[in-house]
Amino acid sequence: MDSEIKRNIILDHYQNPRNKGLTGDNDYLKINMNNESCIDEVNLELKVENNIIKDIKFDGEACAICTSSSSIMTDTLIGKTLDEAKNIIQNFLNMLDEKPYDKNILEEAVVYDDIHRQPNRKKCALLSWWGLEKLLNQIEAQN
Asked: In what order do the strands lie in the sheet with 29-34?
């Protein structure tokens, strides 16, 4: 993907984040994630019904990379089954760790395919994805 297109996607998700704003609904699983090396602190809410991600909300104080990555993550994973979501998350983690991954399932998340060149920004891109992975692991442990 062209670097200008990547930049535009990231900027769009930063300026107009999707699924931002918490519901406060007790039907959602919740987690707080923070990055000790910068200002990023994100609260996530996840609603799952019948093994399908029905909704993901996020809010908090975060940089452009963290905010845009959170927005892209929600867009990518809402409507997916838990297994599909886990597979997408693993591929995203692999991409950021420069391991083999399937770019076709990452949708817009592929815009971070060269973030490894800026190691200090990697955590920013990963924070919400790690949080969602923890929530999915909680669900799996309960079943």
From this structure: 29-34, 41-49, 52-61
Q: Using the 8-state DSSP alphabet, how is residue 1 labeled? A: -
Q: What pLDDT digit, counting tens, does each position of 52-111 carry? A: 999 999 999 999 999 999 999 999 999 999 999 999 999 999 999 999 999 999 999 999
Nearest CA among 73, 68, 74, 66 for reference residue 38: 66
| Domains in the chain, number | 1
DSSP structural state of residue 59: E
Candidates 4, 128, 143; CA nearest to 65 is 128
Pair 62, 44: CB distance under 8 Å: no
- Give pTM, 2 decimals: 0.95
Tell me which long-range contacts 90-99 makes (C-beta under 8 A, separation of at least 24).
Answer: 92/129, 93/126, 93/129, 96/122, 96/125, 96/126
Separation between Cα atoms, residue 37 and residue 1, nearest integer Å: 29
Q: Which domain holds residue 52?
A: 3-142
Q: Which residue has the tokens 């990231």?
A: 10
